[in-house]
Design goal:
Layout lengths: L15 E7 L9 E12 L2 E7 L8 E2 L11 H13 L6 E10 L4 E10 L12 E7 L21 H9 L4 E7 L5 E8 L1
Parallel strand pairs: 2-6, 5-8
Antiparallel strand pairs: 1-9, 2-3, 3-4, 3-7, 5-6, 8-9
The protein binds 8-OXO-2'-deoxyguanosine-5'-triphosphate.
Cofactor: Mg(2+)
Protein name: Oxidized purine nucleoside triphosphate hydrolase
Organism: Phanerochaete carnosa (strain HHB-10118-sp)
Length: 190
C-alpha cells in the first residue's frame, strides 16, 4: 500500500503501515529540520543500548548518535558518534528513518537509524552514555540478559524496534508535547 505519509516523512517506494495512533488529529507544525543519527549493535540475540547520562533524552536508554555535522554524511556521523559514545567502530548500515517533533524544540529531527551485527574495539562508558547489553528475545527464560527496557526508552521505540530487530526497513514519525507525552505516531515497513 502507498497511502500518504505524515509531513516530514520521506518514502520513495511503497510502504505498509504497521502502527498509528494518538489523541489528536493533526501533526505538530515545524519549520526547520536537523539531521541526526542513532545506531545499534545487534548480535547473537542481544542489543547494545546506552543509558544517557546527560542532555536531551537524559535517563533514557537509547542507541548511540547525535547531530550530523555540516561536512559529514549521516553514515560518517553515525560511525563517529558510536566511537565517541561507546568507544567502538562498527560497519553500520542504514535500516530506517524516523521523523521526530517536540513541541518545545524549534526544529524537527530527521533521524537516520543504523545497525551493525559486529564491531571492533572495547565498549567503554563515556561522559554521555553507559552502555549495556539487553536480550532481543523478549521473555526467553534462558537469557541471562535483561529484556529491552521499553518503559525507560522514548515512547515510540516500542513500535519500530521490532522492525529493526527483524531486519525490516522502516519509516515513521512521532510527535511529543512539552510534558514528554507522545501525542501522535505513525510507523510503516518499506
Ligand atoms: N530511540 C529514539 N531516539 C531518538 C528519538 N528522538 C531523538 O531525537 N532520538 C535520538 C536521536 C539522537 O541519537 C539523539 C539526540 O541527539 P543528541 O541530543 O544526543 O545530540 P547532540 O547534538 O547532543 O549530540 P552530539 O552531536 O553533541 O553528540 O536522540 C526517539 O524518539 N527515539
Amino acid at each position: 500500500m502507498s497511502a500518504s505519509v505524515p509531513p516530514g516523512v520521506v518514502c520513495e517506494g511503497s510502504h505498509t503501515e504497521k502502527h498509528s495512533g494518538g489523541a489528536v488529529d493533526g501533526w505538530l507544525a515545524f519549520e526547520k529540520v536537523k539531521l541526526y543519527t542513532n545506531a545499534f549493535i545487534v548480535e547473537e540475540g542481544r542489543i547494545l543500548l546506552g543509558y544517557k547520562k546527560r542532555g536531551f533524552g537524559k535517563d533514557l536508554y537509547n542507541g548511540f548518535g547525535g547531530k550530523v555535522e555540516p561536512q559529514e554524511t549521516p553514515l560518517e556521523a553515525a560511525v563517529r558518534e558510536m566511537q565517541e559514545e561507546a568507544g567502538i567502530t562498527a560497519p553500520l548500515k542504514k535500516c530506517g528513518t524516523l521523523f521526530f517533533v517536540c513541541e518545545d524544540i524549534d526544529h524537527a529531527f530527521h533521524i537516520d537509524i543504523f545497525v551493525a551485527d559486529e564491531y571492533t574495539g572495547a565498549i567503554i562508558e563515556t561522559d554521555e552514555m553507559r552502555p549495556g547489553w539487553f536480550s532481543t528475545s523478549q521473555g526467553a527464560p534462558s537469557s541471562e540478559l535483561p529484556p529491552i527496557p521499553y518503559s525507560r526508552m522514548w515512547a515510540d521505540d516500542v513500535f519500530w524496534m521490532p522492525m529493526l530487530l527483524a531486519g525490516k526497513p522502516f519509516i515513521g514519525r512521532a510527535d511529543f508535547v512539552q510534558d514528554g507525552t507522545m501525542q501522535k505516531w505513525w510507523f510503516a515497513e518499506v
